[in-house]
Amino acid sequence: MNEVLLYTILTLCVLGVLAAVILYFVARKFRVEEDPRIDEVEKMLPGANCGGCGFAGCRAMADALVKNDDISSLFCPVGGGSTMKAAAAYLGKAAAEKEPQVATVRCGGTCEKRPRTNEYDGAKSCAVASSLYAGETGCAFGCVGFGDCEAACAFDALRIDPATGLPVVDPDKCTACGACVKACPKHIIELRKKWPKNRAVYVSCVSKDKGAVVMKACKAGCIGCGKCAKVCAFGAITVENNLAYIDPQKCKLCRKCVNECPTGAIRLVGMEPLPKEPKAPATPAAPKAAPAVEASAAKPETPKAAAE
Amino acid sequence: MGNNHKLIIAPSPHVQSDRSTACIMRDVVIALLPALVVSAVVFGANVLFITALSVCACVVSEYLIQRFIVRGATTVGNWSAVVTGVLLAFNLPATIPWWIVLIGAFVAIGIAKMTFGGLGKNPFNPALVGRVFLLIAYPVQMTSFPAVEGFDALSGATPLAAVKQGTVSASALDIQDLMLGNMPGSLGEVAALALLAGFVYLLWRKVITWHVPVTILATMALFAAVAAVCSGMTGAALWQFPLFHVLAGGALLGSIFMATDYSTSPMTVKGGIIFAIGIGAITMCIRLWGAYPEGMSFAILIMNSVVPLLNKYVKPKRFGVK
Amino acid sequence: MKTFPIGGVHPSENKLSCSKPVEVLPLPEVVHIPLAQHIGAPAVAKVAKGDRVVTGQLIAEAGSFMSANIHSPISGTVTAVDLVANGQGLRQPMITIQREGDEWAEGIDRSTALVKECTLSSQEIIAKIKGAGIVGMGGATFPTHVKLSVPPGKRAEVLIINGVECEPYLTSDHRTMLERGEELVIGVTVLMKALAVEKAVIGIENNKPDAIAHLKKIVANYPGIEVQPLMVKYPQGGEKQLIAAITGRQVPPPPALPIDVGAVVCNASTTVAVYEAVQKNKPLIERVVTVTGKGIKEPKNLLTRMGTPISALLEAAGGLPENAGKVINGGPMMGRAMSNLDSPVTKGCSGITVMSGRDAVRRPAAQCIKCAKCVSACPMGLEPYYLSKMTQKKDWEAIEARMITSCIECGSCQATCPAYLPLLDWIRLGKQTVMGIIRARAAAAAPKK
After folding, report:
1. Are C428 and A131 within 8 A, CB to CB?
2. ipTM, two decimals
3. Pairing state of beta strands C58-61 and C70-71?
4. Do A132 and B9 touch (CB under 8 A)?
5. How far apart are CA A193 and CA C297, in angstroms?
6. Which of A117, A209, A213 lies closest to C339 in CB terms?
């Protein structure tokens, strides 16, 4: 009995030692020499592996940062400027400067404003539905509402609101990685400049249909009337293909256009509308309550000052 | 055109099969009924109790796990737990204590099926995992078979065990007894004719194709024939020995009902044939040279583990590709 | 009995209107003519708002070689050339014509007299077919003149006429073969001349014994043409399946074409249109449309002018039933569900199928049980369960390697799935994506040379 025990233990020990020796030599032989800085840079990156930088993951990005001499074209949208600065400082290179951005959903066609005209019964995917037909409503441009963006978001920053049927972005969680922009088959999501306190003014519609068609399909659509473009003092608004667009680089958040819009397609977030007219456009409440409270306390001039 | 109601839109095709998963599983249960009836006649009413207990235990475990652990929609409606329950019972001796049945059912559903995500995701046949677990955990209870009237030659040993021990020769066994189930064994494996009736029903209902079962049995017969020749058998024994191996033990039950289990068999015909040859060969190896008299369960479980590989590398015949 | 070699399914045939002779639908008051009702480049409008047009007049010209002419189906005034919603609610450029009287363009022979003799050369025939704007009328709408222009280095050996009509419910080809058999066969001789082939086979499934017998009697007088009865199995009417069923040759995977195995396939109704175009100078302005469905009061085969609103056809068949759920442009296997019933009949519209009540709604999807029924049903020998799963995981390389581009979108996999999974919904998306990737790759490789 004791002998059996002894032999068993001995055999196992010998096998173990043998395996360790083999592993050691194999590891030595097949070792891949890698720049140790890649590991260091990878640690600085957020580690979300979201692909927002255009690489397969954070390690691939770190590899590119270490190997390229000019890294000004590389940018980690999740980590933002601070991460890039830290990595660039470590590598002794010049980092790219990019202002913070946030995903913005440019569709205001809620269930209420854009009634359903048919019922979709296929696979619950925006990509499948939109390659089949115009969608459940009369608008062929707006949100399909099956949540491909929500599924693509690695940061839990996007959610389809069951009440409106539209995606809602949590600007605090959004890292502007752009995954939702790519996932949306209707191209309604745009990365726009992120203002302090999540303020925003944008045209919440992407319909290129003529005004009459838009009005029939949706009560919140842009009809391309051009009133907003006329009132804009900064030349930030252009109207093309029956659709207004506010250039985030030129817009100063003066909010004049908001009061002009006859359908309420221009959305205002995080600020009170200008007090000029009592007939305030139907601005849906800001998704986050906190900024709205702060904004009401702020004077109308503050956003302008914040722009500087 | 004033259509007040909303039209429904979906991509094509706009027709669906009228045979749902539940419908297919029900067909399998129907195909198992003849064997159950024969078994009840041979071993007595206790068979019905064991089967009912096993089915209930399987259905209840699946319901509870789905409801309280997975927290998903109830899946017992697809009848797959019923099939597992019947198959598990068919793999047990008629004298098995009731509590062992419960343990087997729980292992089959809880461990072999639900931990992998339920129907369609389990890599191993749940009923067989249950059986093999019991065989290892309760070897005595699992191998004590009740003697069958008019079959005292074997006195409680299965034909396979008896042949293995050398107490009888394969050619001494009556083919008619094997066909009609007049021999000791697990509940469902004894009546070859009843199992074949189930096979015909499944083929008619297009639930399974003939490829896997026929290939398994053919491989076994061929293997047994070669073994017979090599061991110097002559005369009638040369065909009796292969026939005995095809009819005795779990060969028919396993090849018709267990190896054809959808989730755990390959997706292509070609893959299925490789899978079936493997099962036949391993079964015969265990029967002839292994420690156990029967090897069907082990053979199927071993080949189950090869299925993902077969699905990956064996591709169907593509149209237009030489 | 001949049939194709791999896969296939047997959906319920439901040919409700197979014994209903073709009726002529009264002329519509307004028609919308889409500029893109064929595969390829859209046609270019040749008329403007306010123009007077007559029946059979060219109103839009082929935009490129891979395109087709479009003619006015009625006489009247063009009221708009603008975006109009199609059956899927997508706004497309269409020509709108308000009807005034029934005036025809000159040179069109509207008599029913048969014209058997054809003295034109191959080039002249193809030019006439191109001029008449003929496209495949079975639903694929591939321009016929492109099909007949055999590329250099390739040779057509056999002409196959597709009289299979394997889609459940639809009977427009069946009725056309029965009622216009002689014209069809003359059309076949014209096409044989255009292709310079000696042999033509008309493939008809065995569920249309009357059409088989009728055409067999006619082709007895025409050398080189034979009628081939085929086993009933979907999708026998698929081009590749039909070629395999009749000749035994399998068209290799894309980008190979039927001509690579020496075959040219033409739909039966298209062949009658070819007869009318070449022998009678009549452009493609009308077609037979089956209006059918279990809830439809009077299933019918209607000879309809292009551009007629779908709603007018439904009205003629007794109106949309109360419990109608889905209105399909085409048959239930490959047809497209419509959200807009004011959309027009186009060249590829062989039927309107109305699904009512429970038939219209998909049953809830369960989990895949790996039954492999989709694998054995796939007529292209693909693995639908895998392609669908990997599309959802966005693994484009994996599905390209498993030949997703070979998928003909016949729907056999989904129609046979016991778990009611939306297999083809995903596979179609995967196929589109992979085709895009392949095109992008080709575009990236092109400038290098």
Report:
1. yes
2. 0.90
3. antiparallel
4. yes
5. 59
6. A117
